[in-house]
Amino acid sequence: IGPVTAKRIVAHFGLDTLEVIEQSCSRLIEVPGIAKKRITLIEQAWAAQKAIKEVMLFLREHDVSTVYAVKIYKQYGDQAIEVVTTNPYRLADDIYGIGFVTADTIARKLGMAPDADFRYQAGIIYTLAQAGEDGHCFLPQPELIEQTVMQLALPDHPVDPQRIATLIGQMTETKQLIVQAGYGDLSDEQICYAPAFYHTEQALATRLASLVRRPVAVEWERVLRWIDGYTAKKELTLSAEQRRAVELAASSRLLILTGGPGTGKTFTTKTIVALWRAMGKSIKCASPTGRAAQRLSEMTGHEAKTIHRLLVFDPSTRQFRHNEESPLETDCLIVDETSMLDLFLAHSLFKAVAPRTQILLVGDIDQLPSVGPGMVLRDLMSSGMLPIVRLTEVFRQAAESNIITNAHRINAGQYPQLTPTIKFGLSDCLWLEAEEPALGAEGIAHLVSEYLPKHGINPVQQVQVLCPATRGDIGTRQLNTMLQKLLNPPTPEKVELTRGGLLLRAGDRVIQQVNDYQREVFNGDVGTVARIDLQEQEVIVQFAEREVTYDYADLSELALAWAITIHKSQGSEYNVVILPLFMQHYMLLSRNLLYTGLTRAKQLAILVGPTKAIGLSVRRVMDRQRYTALADRLKEALRPSSLPEMGEG
């Protein structure tokens, strides 16, 4: 059955559709366009899919969508109904898109006791998982208890906090949780980890300590002579900060290079690459995102890959091929956009680094932290155990850009100098005033449909809207619906489909929302819908390097990307950025959010919103740090006599 026929059947029979196909298939003759021969084929196919049919019918009774039903069957096969009826909370662990809330709803519909231990235990694990989604690696025990109680409480079933505390103790004994004394301000508290977070954080600290403990042999006089000769030959001038970075790169096992826009991170990195080449060293370059890797490649003249591709994911083992046993073969490794590294990706990367390798981590510490858990770059810097060069001088050419000068003003807590949009051409940093979100949306519609095209800018190819959040009148969801109509409207020849609330057309800009190792597309990758095959029920998306095919069942991995969140934009640059900032999202507005969004723009940035929201963003420094202990663990691991020796590389 194709989508058109399916729509006609559902339109005719409504909620009774599955029952009609199951018990009275001959009634399909009532639907215009379905002949007896087609009914026979449908009946045969339905019988052949008996197992999935039973799962579909069972799950429909419990209000689980068809999309999830297909995923549940894919995961568990003929055991699907048994798993769901025995412990529906397994769905939250095993299947993307089915969280604790959905599993909990199914459990209650199946009549499971709301105070069952396994419900409470699933709630504790879910609360920690949610904390991970918010960037935390652990929660202090009182906070875990409080949040779990709020999550599990039902109107007629309050939850006893002491019961949760008791279960945390039991789960610690069975290794479902790891609880230990906290560090620093939390030294009087017990802190609670999901095991994967604890072991990864500890292993990352140990690995980093083992790497940086190994000295680097260097002939200082030759290095200093080379720097003098190189700068003279190229007629370049290194600032004192930049020269220090180049010198440290020669002698350090791991060096962190940070600084804002216009401070010469690119220039310094290129000089370090030239030095390493002159020393006869092999170099590999990587970045968390495809776009950032492409920029790094252009900058260094060296091939750069995403970290996922550098480490080579093996679908058969669901592990990276490069690890401790099979490290990356290189003398030097450059990682750009390091502020985007989360705990798990950082661990995968550093355990694949050979003992002999020197590492340069480049990033802007003032950007938003990683989308995933942890704040790796900030923790490495705050540990005080690693060499760091922070570039602070903004160079003359960069200082001519209002985008760059405003980024530094924002970082210093000063309101940016913005030019009204009516004065196009006087500044690369414009402002469209709008007091209310609805007016902001109208303003954005005007910008992309009239204002920017009038000034020779193609909004389909050159413009990206970046929002603080997905929800609300000025969030990515609403704006994507509007922008899709404006920038990729329906035409008779354009194929389109709607699946799970997502309307897709050929030509739509889309973003990958999860890491899909089978297809080798990763969270944040942006592509364009090349074509939609209604017959094969596939959507083909053109990403930067290749085409990727999605079955209809996997389209939940994609979202429209005419507007994306500022978080998702990290590591990317766009010719033109439109940045709506409204009090509707006041809980999310912050200095590093505005700074990150603004610095994504290469040629033109347009802020849309009231002065109140922009001012709040500038003033608010997010003081609530993520709960991580990497810095403390690194200090512990680098204490004398605490380090295992690594083999020769």
Characterise the protein shown here.
- The protein is of the alpha/beta class.
- Among the domains are: 117-193, Orthogonal Bundle (Arc Repressor Mutant, subunit A); 209-396 and 628-637, P-loop containing nucleotide triphosphate hydrolases (Rossmann fold, 3-Layer(aba) Sandwich); 401-488 and 562-609, P-loop containing nucleotide triphosphate hydrolases (Rossmann fold, 3-Layer(aba) Sandwich), CATH 3.40.50.300.
- It has a six-stranded parallel β-sheet with strand order 6-5-9-10-4-11. It has a six-stranded parallel β-sheet with strand order 12-13-24-23-14-22, sandwiched between helices.
- α14 packs parallel to α15.
- The protein is globular, with a radius of gyration of 27 Å.
Bulk shape: globular
Strand order of the largest sheet: 6-5-9-10-4-11
Main sheet summary: 6 strands, parallel
Structural class: alpha/beta
Q: Number of helical runs?
A: 27
Radius of gyration: 27 Å
How much is the average pLDDT? 91
Low-confidence stretches: 641-649
Separation of the first and last Cα atoms? 59 Å
The CATH topology assignment of the domain at 209-396 and 628-637 is Rossmann fold
Superfamily (CATH H level) name of the domain at 209-396 and 628-637: P-loop containing nucleotide triphosphate hydrolases
Helix content: 40-55%
Kindly estimate the percentage of residues that lie in beta strands according to DSSP: 15-25%
| Record field, number of beta strands | 24
Named at the architecture level, the CATH assignment of the domain at 209-396 and 628-637 is 3-Layer(aba) Sandwich
